[in-house]
Amino acid sequence: MASLLVAICFISFMLVKNSPIDPIQAYIGADMLKVGPEQRAKIAEYWGVDQPVMVQFLNWGSAVLNGDLGTSMIYRRPVIDVIRERFLNSLVLMVSAWLLSGVIGFVMGVVAAMKKGAWIDRIIKWYCFTLASVPTFWMGLLILIVFAVWLRWFPVGMGVPAGVLAKDVTLLDRIQHIILPTLTLSIVALPMWLSIHVRR
Asked: Which of 10, 37, 62, 140 is the most exposed place for a label (fewest CB within 10 A)?
């Protein structure tokens, strides 16, 4: 098992290493003409990309095992800190969607079982099988277009309002931004399977 994990890590590392994108050039960006060969060499030395491949892999692996995922070029902060801050938002979304979808799916399954063969049972089964055959990403985009773009009931994206400092974000802002993703995940994902199993 450990050897398989190491092999997967090495293959992933080599795929990134052999990418046609030059990391130094991508880092420099529009200032490429202003950076001379000596500066590029210093950047390569600082990042360690001028070392042999196996040395780079071992350095990367040891850093990952020690919890060092590198530094974000966008936020100029350790990647682990950026992930830690945003993990809470993902956790809240996951838990809220899981709870809501469980309630929706259970209620639909109970209603379908109590009214087996009736029109409401057929509607619930049609809903479940239709969503099962529709790509999830397409349904998510459709819900986003209808409720966020056309009706403008909810924000289009992000977890907080754009351009607002973290200290100025209110609980109401966070709730408003999480409603549509929660409803989308709850409606599209779990209820159809839970409803079918509860009905049986």
From this structure: 37
From 84, 93, 101, select the one nearest 178 (Cα to Cα). 93
Q: Please tell me the number of Cα atoms within 13 Å of 36 on its side-chain side.
A: 1
Q: What are phi and psi of 172, to 5 degrees?
A: -65, -40
How does pLDDT run across 83-101, given as a tens digit for each residue? 888 888 889 888 998 888 8
Q: Give me the chain's average pLDDT, please.
A: 82
SS3 78: strand
The whole-model pTM stands at 0.65
DSSP labels, 74-94: TTSSBHHHHHHHHHHHHHHHH
C-beta neighbour count of 45 within 10 angstroms: 11
Q: Residue 61 in contact with residue 147, Cβ under 8 Å?
A: no
Helix axes 53-65, 2-17, angle to 10 degrees: 120
**Distance between CA atoms of 13 and 19, rounded to whole angstroms?**
10
| Single-letter amino acid code for the residue at 112 | A
Which of 20, 41, 68 is the endpoint of a domain? 68
Residues 20 and 87 in one domain: no
Residue whose token pair is 């049609």 = 126
